[in-house]
Amino acid sequence: MSDGHDTAKWHAQNAIAWLKFNRPAKRNCMNPELNRRMLELLDEIEYRDDIGVLVLTGEGESWSAGMDLKEYFRENEARGLRAVRRAQREAYGWWRRLRWFQKPTIAMVNGWCFGGAYGPLYACDLAIAADEAQFALSEINWGILPGGGATKVVSELIPMRDAMYHALTGELIDGKKAAQWRLVNESVPRSQLEARVTQLANTLLQKNPVALKATKDAIRRVGEMTYENAQDYLIRAQEAANSFDNEGRKAGIQQFIDEKSYKPGLGAYDKSRLHRP
To answer: Model-level pTM?
Structure first.
Protein backbone atom coordinates (compact mmCIF):
# COMPACT_ATOMS: atom_id res chain seq x y z
CA MET A 1 0.00 0.00 0.00
CA SER A 2 1.18 3.53 -0.79
CA ASP A 3 2.37 5.68 2.10
CA GLY A 4 0.36 8.54 0.61
CA HIS A 5 3.32 10.77 -0.21
CA ASP A 6 2.43 10.78 -3.89
CA THR A 7 -1.20 11.85 -3.34
CA ALA A 8 -0.29 15.55 -3.01
CA LYS A 9 2.77 17.57 -3.91
CA TRP A 10 4.07 21.12 -3.94
CA HIS A 11 6.83 23.30 -5.29
CA ALA A 12 7.92 26.88 -4.67
CA GLN A 13 8.41 29.49 -7.34
CA ASN A 14 9.03 33.19 -6.72
CA ALA A 15 7.61 33.12 -3.17
CA ILE A 16 4.47 31.22 -4.27
CA ALA A 17 3.80 27.68 -3.03
CA TRP A 18 1.95 25.66 -5.67
CA LEU A 19 0.19 22.87 -3.76
CA LYS A 20 -1.50 20.18 -5.86
CA PHE A 21 -3.97 17.41 -5.41
CA ASN A 22 -2.13 14.59 -7.15
CA ARG A 23 -4.50 11.75 -7.99
CA PRO A 24 -5.24 12.71 -11.61
CA ALA A 25 -6.37 9.21 -12.60
CA LYS A 26 -9.07 9.52 -9.90
CA ARG A 27 -9.92 13.12 -10.81
CA ASN A 28 -8.05 14.15 -7.65
CA CYS A 29 -10.77 12.86 -5.35
CA MET A 30 -9.76 12.93 -1.70
CA ASN A 31 -8.99 9.68 0.08
CA PRO A 32 -7.67 9.29 3.65
CA GLU A 33 -4.05 9.16 2.45
CA LEU A 34 -4.41 12.42 0.56
CA ASN A 35 -6.05 14.10 3.53
CA ARG A 36 -3.23 13.06 5.84
CA ARG A 37 -0.62 14.16 3.29
CA MET A 38 -2.22 17.56 2.83
CA LEU A 39 -1.98 18.25 6.56
CA GLU A 40 1.71 17.30 6.49
CA LEU A 41 2.40 19.60 3.55
CA LEU A 42 0.56 22.54 5.09
CA ASP A 43 2.75 22.07 8.17
CA GLU A 44 5.80 22.08 5.91
CA ILE A 45 4.83 25.23 4.02
CA GLU A 46 3.08 27.48 6.52
CA TYR A 47 5.93 29.26 8.31
CA ARG A 48 8.59 29.25 5.61
CA ASP A 49 10.09 32.73 5.22
CA ASP A 50 10.51 32.25 1.47
CA ILE A 51 6.78 31.64 0.89
CA GLY A 52 4.24 34.47 0.86
CA VAL A 53 1.19 32.97 -0.91
CA LEU A 54 -0.21 29.45 -1.29
CA VAL A 55 -2.07 28.32 -4.42
CA LEU A 56 -4.13 25.13 -4.24
CA THR A 57 -4.80 23.41 -7.56
CA GLY A 58 -5.11 19.98 -9.14
CA GLU A 59 -2.81 17.87 -11.26
CA GLY A 60 -4.22 17.09 -14.69
CA GLU A 61 -7.72 18.04 -15.82
CA SER A 62 -9.49 18.19 -12.43
CA TRP A 63 -9.31 20.30 -9.29
CA SER A 64 -10.95 17.68 -7.08
CA ALA A 65 -13.98 15.47 -7.68
CA GLY A 66 -14.73 15.45 -3.94
CA MET A 67 -14.43 12.50 -1.58
CA ASP A 68 -13.34 9.08 -2.83
CA LEU A 69 -16.60 7.09 -2.60
CA LYS A 70 -14.85 3.73 -2.35
CA GLU A 71 -12.10 4.55 0.15
CA TYR A 72 -13.58 7.42 2.15
CA PHE A 73 -17.14 6.07 2.41
CA ARG A 74 -17.53 2.35 1.68
CA GLU A 75 -14.22 1.07 3.11
CA ASN A 76 -14.34 3.25 6.22
CA GLU A 77 -17.96 2.40 6.91
CA ALA A 78 -17.07 -1.28 6.69
CA ARG A 79 -14.45 -0.73 9.41
CA GLY A 80 -16.97 0.88 11.75
CA LEU A 81 -17.65 4.21 13.39
CA ARG A 82 -14.11 4.67 14.68
CA ALA A 83 -12.72 4.57 11.15
CA VAL A 84 -15.43 6.91 9.88
CA ARG A 85 -14.74 9.47 12.58
CA ARG A 86 -10.99 9.31 11.99
CA ALA A 87 -11.43 9.92 8.27
CA GLN A 88 -13.70 12.88 9.01
CA ARG A 89 -11.20 14.39 11.45
CA GLU A 90 -8.39 14.10 8.91
CA ALA A 91 -10.38 15.72 6.10
CA TYR A 92 -11.94 18.48 8.18
CA GLY A 93 -8.61 19.00 9.94
CA TRP A 94 -6.65 20.09 6.89
CA TRP A 95 -9.56 22.18 5.58
CA ARG A 96 -9.67 23.99 8.93
CA ARG A 97 -5.90 24.45 8.86
CA LEU A 98 -6.16 25.89 5.37
CA ARG A 99 -9.00 28.21 6.39
CA TRP A 100 -6.84 29.86 9.06
CA PHE A 101 -3.51 29.47 7.21
CA GLN A 102 -0.77 31.97 8.01
CA LYS A 103 -0.37 33.08 4.38
CA PRO A 104 -3.09 34.17 1.94
CA THR A 105 -4.42 31.30 -0.15
CA ILE A 106 -5.87 31.05 -3.65
CA ALA A 107 -7.87 28.17 -5.09
CA MET A 108 -6.95 27.77 -8.77
CA VAL A 109 -9.87 25.66 -10.00
CA ASN A 110 -8.62 24.11 -13.20
CA GLY A 111 -11.31 21.46 -13.70
CA TRP A 112 -13.90 19.36 -11.86
CA CYS A 113 -14.86 20.63 -8.39
CA PHE A 114 -17.52 18.41 -6.82
CA GLY A 115 -19.13 17.83 -3.44
CA GLY A 116 -16.55 17.47 -0.69
CA ALA A 117 -14.13 19.65 -2.68
CA TYR A 118 -16.25 22.62 -1.64
CA GLY A 119 -14.58 22.28 1.80
CA PRO A 120 -11.07 23.25 0.65
CA LEU A 121 -12.56 25.63 -1.95
CA TYR A 122 -14.21 27.62 0.85
CA ALA A 123 -11.10 27.32 3.01
CA CYS A 124 -9.07 29.26 0.44
CA ASP A 125 -9.27 33.03 0.80
CA LEU A 126 -9.67 33.70 -2.92
CA ALA A 127 -10.72 31.50 -5.82
CA ILE A 128 -10.17 31.82 -9.57
CA ALA A 129 -11.69 29.23 -11.89
CA ALA A 130 -11.28 28.26 -15.49
CA ASP A 131 -14.33 29.07 -17.58
CA GLU A 132 -14.30 25.40 -18.54
CA ALA A 133 -14.23 24.13 -14.92
CA GLN A 134 -17.25 22.11 -13.77
CA PHE A 135 -18.88 22.48 -10.34
CA ALA A 136 -21.61 20.33 -8.80
CA LEU A 137 -23.10 19.16 -5.54
CA SER A 138 -23.61 15.64 -6.80
CA GLU A 139 -24.60 14.11 -3.45
CA ILE A 140 -28.32 14.30 -4.22
CA ASN A 141 -27.68 11.98 -7.19
CA TRP A 142 -26.53 9.14 -4.93
CA GLY A 143 -28.91 9.67 -2.08
CA ILE A 144 -27.31 11.88 0.57
CA LEU A 145 -27.30 15.55 1.46
CA PRO A 146 -24.20 17.68 0.73
CA GLY A 147 -22.21 17.01 3.90
CA GLY A 148 -18.70 17.81 5.04
CA GLY A 149 -19.63 21.48 5.22
CA ALA A 150 -20.70 21.72 1.56
CA THR A 151 -24.24 22.82 2.46
CA LYS A 152 -22.78 25.53 4.70
CA VAL A 153 -20.44 26.64 1.91
CA VAL A 154 -23.20 27.21 -0.64
CA SER A 155 -25.51 28.86 1.90
CA GLU A 156 -22.63 31.15 2.92
CA LEU A 157 -21.44 32.10 -0.55
CA ILE A 158 -24.44 32.14 -2.88
CA PRO A 159 -28.06 33.40 -2.73
CA MET A 160 -30.68 31.08 -1.25
CA ARG A 161 -32.53 30.35 -4.51
CA ASP A 162 -29.30 29.48 -6.30
CA ALA A 163 -28.11 27.41 -3.32
CA MET A 164 -31.37 25.46 -3.35
CA TYR A 165 -31.19 24.85 -7.09
CA HIS A 166 -27.53 23.81 -6.89
CA ALA A 167 -28.06 21.36 -4.03
CA LEU A 168 -31.43 19.90 -5.08
CA THR A 169 -30.72 19.28 -8.78
CA GLY A 170 -27.09 18.14 -8.72
CA GLU A 171 -26.67 19.83 -12.11
CA LEU A 172 -23.28 20.90 -13.41
CA ILE A 173 -22.39 24.57 -13.67
CA ASP A 174 -19.30 25.95 -15.37
CA GLY A 175 -16.74 28.44 -14.10
CA LYS A 176 -18.63 31.40 -15.51
CA LYS A 177 -21.78 30.45 -13.61
CA ALA A 178 -19.74 29.74 -10.47
CA ALA A 179 -18.37 33.29 -10.69
CA GLN A 180 -21.85 34.70 -11.29
CA TRP A 181 -23.08 32.85 -8.18
CA ARG A 182 -19.93 33.95 -6.25
CA LEU A 183 -18.61 30.48 -5.52
CA VAL A 184 -15.40 31.94 -6.96
CA ASN A 185 -14.12 35.48 -7.45
CA GLU A 186 -13.90 35.22 -11.21
CA SER A 187 -13.32 32.86 -14.09
CA VAL A 188 -11.01 33.12 -17.08
CA PRO A 189 -10.25 30.86 -20.04
CA ARG A 190 -8.21 27.87 -18.91
CA SER A 191 -5.31 29.00 -21.11
CA GLN A 192 -5.09 32.19 -19.01
CA LEU A 193 -5.75 30.64 -15.60
CA GLU A 194 -2.22 30.21 -14.27
CA ALA A 195 -1.17 33.65 -15.49
CA ARG A 196 -4.15 35.30 -13.79
CA VAL A 197 -3.54 33.45 -10.51
CA THR A 198 0.16 34.35 -10.63
CA GLN A 199 -0.77 37.99 -11.18
CA LEU A 200 -3.10 37.91 -8.18
CA ALA A 201 -0.50 36.16 -6.02
CA ASN A 202 2.07 38.80 -6.94
CA THR A 203 -0.37 41.52 -5.90
CA LEU A 204 -0.68 39.87 -2.49
CA LEU A 205 3.09 39.49 -2.19
CA GLN A 206 3.42 43.28 -2.27
CA LYS A 207 1.34 43.65 0.90
CA ASN A 208 2.38 43.55 4.53
CA PRO A 209 2.14 39.86 5.60
CA VAL A 210 1.04 40.66 9.16
CA ALA A 211 -1.76 42.87 7.83
CA LEU A 212 -2.77 40.18 5.34
CA LYS A 213 -3.16 37.56 8.08
CA ALA A 214 -5.07 39.93 10.36
CA THR A 215 -7.36 40.99 7.51
CA LYS A 216 -8.19 37.51 6.25
CA ASP A 217 -9.01 36.36 9.78
CA ALA A 218 -11.15 39.45 10.36
CA ILE A 219 -13.21 38.88 7.22
CA ARG A 220 -14.08 35.36 8.37
CA ARG A 221 -14.74 36.32 11.99
CA VAL A 222 -16.81 39.47 11.77
CA GLY A 223 -19.55 37.90 9.67
CA GLU A 224 -20.66 36.03 12.80
CA MET A 225 -20.63 39.15 15.01
CA THR A 226 -22.88 42.08 15.78
CA TYR A 227 -21.62 45.43 14.52
CA GLU A 228 -20.50 46.50 18.01
CA ASN A 229 -18.70 43.21 18.67
CA ALA A 230 -17.01 43.46 15.29
CA GLN A 231 -15.81 46.98 16.05
CA ASP A 232 -14.29 45.83 19.32
CA TYR A 233 -12.70 42.77 17.69
CA LEU A 234 -11.17 44.86 14.90
CA ILE A 235 -9.69 47.38 17.34
CA ARG A 236 -8.06 44.56 19.31
CA ALA A 237 -6.93 42.81 16.12
CA GLN A 238 -5.22 45.98 14.89
CA GLU A 239 -3.50 46.46 18.24
CA ALA A 240 -2.28 42.85 18.14
CA ALA A 241 -1.02 43.29 14.56
CA ASN A 242 0.83 46.44 15.59
CA SER A 243 2.60 44.52 18.34
CA PHE A 244 3.95 42.12 15.69
CA ASP A 245 4.84 44.66 13.02
CA ASN A 246 4.50 48.27 14.12
CA GLU A 247 7.48 49.23 11.95
CA GLY A 248 5.64 48.12 8.83
CA ARG A 249 2.67 50.33 9.66
CA LYS A 250 4.94 53.28 10.40
CA ALA A 251 6.83 52.78 7.14
CA GLY A 252 3.60 52.80 5.15
CA ILE A 253 2.43 56.02 6.80
CA GLN A 254 5.83 57.66 6.37
CA GLN A 255 6.07 56.82 2.68
CA PHE A 256 2.54 58.15 2.12
CA ILE A 257 2.50 61.29 4.30
CA ASP A 258 6.13 62.42 4.40
CA GLU A 259 7.66 61.10 1.20
CA LYS A 260 4.50 61.02 -0.93
CA SER A 261 6.04 58.05 -2.74
CA TYR A 262 2.81 56.09 -3.16
CA LYS A 263 -0.98 56.39 -2.83
CA PRO A 264 -2.73 53.73 -0.71
CA GLY A 265 -5.75 53.74 -3.00
CA LEU A 266 -3.55 52.83 -5.97
CA GLY A 267 -0.98 50.42 -4.58
CA ALA A 268 1.10 49.22 -1.62
CA TYR A 269 4.03 50.83 0.11
CA ASP A 270 7.57 49.60 -0.62
CA LYS A 271 8.29 46.75 1.82
CA SER A 272 11.86 46.42 0.58
CA ARG A 273 12.73 49.74 2.26
CA LEU A 274 11.32 48.77 5.62
CA HIS A 275 14.61 48.13 7.40
CA ARG A 276 16.59 50.93 5.80
CA PRO A 277 17.61 53.89 7.98
So the answer is: 0.89
